[in-house]
Fold:
Amino acid sequence: MSSSWNSSDVGKASARYFAAGRTCSVHIRRRQVAVEPEQLVAADLREPAQALQLLLRKHLRRQARPPAHSSEIPAQEATQANPPHFRRVLRGPPFGGRPAPRRPDGRPDEESAAALFLDVLARPMASDLGALLDRVRPDLVVYEETAVGARVASAARGLPAITHRIVAAASTEAAGSPAARENVGRLFSDFGAGAGGLRGDRVLDISPDSLHSVTDAALVSRIPVRPVPWSEPGGSTPTWLGTVRRPVVYLTLGTIFAEPGTFRAAIDAMSALDVELLVALGAPSTPRRSGTCRRPCTWNASSIRPPCCGRSIWSSTRWQRHHARRGRARPTAAVLPAGRRSVLQRRSGDVGWRRPDAGTGPGFRR
Amino acid sequence: MRWPAPVERLLGEPSFRAAAGVLRREFAVMPHPRDVLPEIMDVVSRAA
Structure:
């Protein structure tokens, strides 16, 4: 299949593109560039970027293979860069089983959090991911904001990078104390990266303006992108959801903070309401049944598809504010765009919250 | 934590549903992931 295209939208260049087999060829200004769509390879062609994208979309559509963001198609290849011992480190002292360090005013201690992400997480990630980058030589590294090791590894190799922010505030900015900045600088230096630090990358941001601080919303590096619900293959919703007549409440505390005591308090409280209760238990240690839960369920929080539930769902989900706002980012990002009424309970790391109780809707920037 | 007081209060708030609607409209106008690919590609091309 071949096609041609001329447009002033890409500048003065007259672009023609062809799609043949798995490799696409782009002819621009007498220069030919071979493109492997899966690798997002591009050359020094700023103007024809749009043409290249049209080509990629056309090529992928012809192959009946949606881009990597599809919620239905698994990734072509996934390599876990974090070593298995990382989880053991997190579960051991001084992190495992201990409450998050707090400042005198009760808020989480950002310095400790920065040490966790920079020392414990970033260094082994930068080391392991560096070997992978040397082998694959990708044209772009997309890293989640707290995956600082990925940024370090890409910077050390001169690879461009984009941040994917799954929270509503810049974690790296929240950890921007002088000590944290010094730690970041040392980290980059130790791995042979320049002193660019963590700022300056474009940011794929899934949060609308009302969930941002004014500063965040005004960031020129921000690329707003709508969250698209995703579930692991095989995930499903309970069949009884299609038959109940009462309002349904979906309760999830995520996986990290799914403490039995918190679940018990929430379930006991809602047992007095005339609702059906769907609970995503998350952690394996959470009790599988509760005497007061009318519809005890055992779904993992990540395997449920809240928007698929047609009736009005009132969702109680953890939504961290300011420092991290992560953890249950996925169900939160699935529920909020669907316009479901939600109660968001702050947990440790929500340093931006000033009120101890729950918040709702776009006004919960308190 | 003050369960269930916040739950009962919020369920009765008239603004509860309206707030959810505001968020839904905000999300609806955000670009779909496929529509931000040109900006991603721009980063790649600038670095090349």
